[in-house]
Design goal:
By secondary structure, this protein is of the alpha/beta class. The protein is built from eight helices and five strands, in the order ααβαββαβαβααα. It has a single domain (3-188), classed as Rossmann fold. The chain has helices spanning 3-24, 27-37, 49-64, 101-112, 127-131, 153-172, 177-183, 187-193, and strands at 43-47, 69-73, 90-94, 117-121, 134-137.
Length: 196
């Protein structure tokens, strides 16, 4: 077994997916960024499974860059966690298939309560794409692993797309290194920024 050859192939497949995502970004990305930038409350990240892990990480990234955000588990939402949300918020919902029942139902709840929703999936014809105010396609048609099935390219592209949104919105808001230090005073990053 040539582990190195196999590992590099995975990376090459993920790079190709990222390049496809880069080439695809356009007006919908700008529209999503505008919705988030104008949000007066929090940005709510919703997902399930591996997409849920990406949603949780993305909420943390947004918050560290000055965009108040929280993660809501798509299943837990129906057991009281919708109480975390308000009409001042906006929502980013994740599902690679775009057809995850719990995520679709959460988006429907947001629509019923006039909470703007951005859907992120790999299927422009999915229920998530149809139910969301704005849909962003992550441009992944095949996963990067040897089985072509484990969440690899899909989760990488979801995370990269949210990094791009978070950084561009933070930059537009004039969020500085000093502001970042205010939210992140501890650890190595905090030490790097404390004397600036």
């Amino acid at each position: 077994m040539n582990y190195l050859k196999s590992g590099k192939k995975v990376l090459q497949n993920e790079i190709k997916s990222l390049q496809a995502l880069d080439q695809s970004l356009g007006d919908k990305f700008n529209a999503a960024a505008e919705v988030i930038s104008k949000t007066k409350g929090k940005v709510i990240f919703i997902g399930l499974g591996k997409s849920g892990h990406v949603a949780r990480k993305s909420a943390a990234t947004f918050s560290s860059l000055g965009i108040p955000s929280i993660f809501v588990h798509a299943s837990e939402a129906f057991h009281g966690d919708f109480g975390m949300m308000s009409k001042k918020d906006s929502t980013i919902a994740f599902s690679f298939s775009g057809n995850t029942t719990e995520v679709i139902n959460a988006v429907k709840f947001c629509n019923q309560h006039n909470i703007p929703t951005i859907g992120i999936s790999g299927n422009a014809n999915s229920y998530l794409a149809k139910e969301s105010q704005i849909h962003l396609d992550i441009c992944v048609h095949e996963e990067a692993d040897h089985l072509k099935i484990a969440p690899t390219s899909s989760t990488t592209n979801m995370m990269a797309l949210c990094d791009a949104l978070a950084s561009s919105i933070s930059e537009q808001k004039g969020f500085s290194r000093s502001d970042f230090h205010t939210f992140h005073p501890g650890g190595n990053l905090g030490n790097q920024l404390k004397d600036e």
